[in-house]
Design brief:
Elements (H helix, E strand, L loop, with lengths): L13 E2 L1 E6 L5 E6 L2 E6 L2 E8 L3 H9 L1 E6 L5 H6 L10 H5 L3 E3 L6 E3 L4 E12 L3 E13 L12 H4 L3 E3 L4 E3 L16
Antiparallel strand pairs: 1-11, 2-3, 2-6, 4-5, 5-10, 6-9, 7-8, 9-10, 11-12
């Protein structure tokens, strides 16, 4: 039997995205954003949701761009750090020991050490309530060669991305492959 938990922001898993932008002075900024995911395939788009109170909010609005940086498990501490301090007061990149790189396709930096990057141009914003949803058109995807499979496609077991459990406020790694999508269910 199912137990009602009420109306809550729970979805499992939730990706851990580190969203990077430049501030007014051109200083690189990074923020841990758990509310996000792919939202369109053509054009390729990804959505993130931020509160207006965050420092990153105005940075993205002003520059009309952001990057999504997918950290591997080995960067769990740095990823968490990006969500506990504000870029308004701290140089997060320097403190975390990570390297900002100027985006090639958009006016936003990315994190050199992270295995997968999505460079996004701001396409739409939607006021939802406490959060504003930013829809970004993916202008380029960058991936470390060591994170690619033999077909040149990002391999989740090589990337080892982090996921977030909202209700318990904990990070997890990814488990093993269960089967090929749009294939394992064909025998039913």
């Amino acid at each position: 039997m199912k137990k009602s938990l009420g109306a809550k922001a729970i979805a499992y898993p939730t990706p851990v995205f580190i969203v990077c932008s430049y501030d007014k002075e051109g200083k690189p900024n990074a923020m841990n954003v758990a509310w996000g995911g792919i939202c369109c395939s053509s054009p390729p788009c990804v959505a993130i949701s931020l509160r207006k109170a965050t420092y990153s909010y105005n940075c993205i609005v002003e520059r009309q761009a952001y990057t999504i940086n997918i950290p591997s498990e080995k960067y769990a501490k740095q990823a968490d750090y990006f969500g506990v301090v504000t870029g308004k007061d701290v140089d997060k990149f320097s403190a975390a020991g990570l390297t900002p790189i100027k985006g090639e396709f958009v006016d936003a930096p990315y994190i050199n050490e992270f295995p997968v990057i999505l460079e996004c141009k701001l396409l739409h914003t939607f006021e939802i309530g406490l959060h504003t949803q930013f829809i970004g058109e993916i202008m380029d995807v960058k991936a470390e060669e060591s994170a690619l499979n033999n077909d040149g496609v990002p391999d989740i077991e090589k990337i080892r991305p982090m996921i977030y459990a909202p209700e318990t406020r904990a990070y997890y790694g990814i488990g093993s492959c269960l089967g090929k999508a749009f294939s394992i269910g064909k025998n039913i």
